[in-house]
Write a structure and sequence with these properties.
single chain; 49 residues; 57% helix; 0% strand; rod-shaped; transmembrane; membrane; transmembrane helix; Integral membrane protein
């Protein structure tokens, strides 16, 4: 079983989610896609890979 829970905290509020990890991963992914597009635009062998 996973350690995540969808149950609310005792006072009825849902648990807060730390968005720093997913947000960082999204920035890294965006940067890699931009670099890939730039390299593919310059180098034909890289575009064919």
């Amino acid at each position: 079983m996973s350690s995540t829970s969808t149950q609310p905290i005792a006072d009825g509020r849902p648990a807060q989610v730390d968005v720093r990890g997913p947000r960082f991963a999204a920035w890294v992914t965006t940067a890699l896609l931009i670099v890939t597009l730039l390299v593919a635009g310059i180098s034909e062998p890289a575009a064919g890979a």
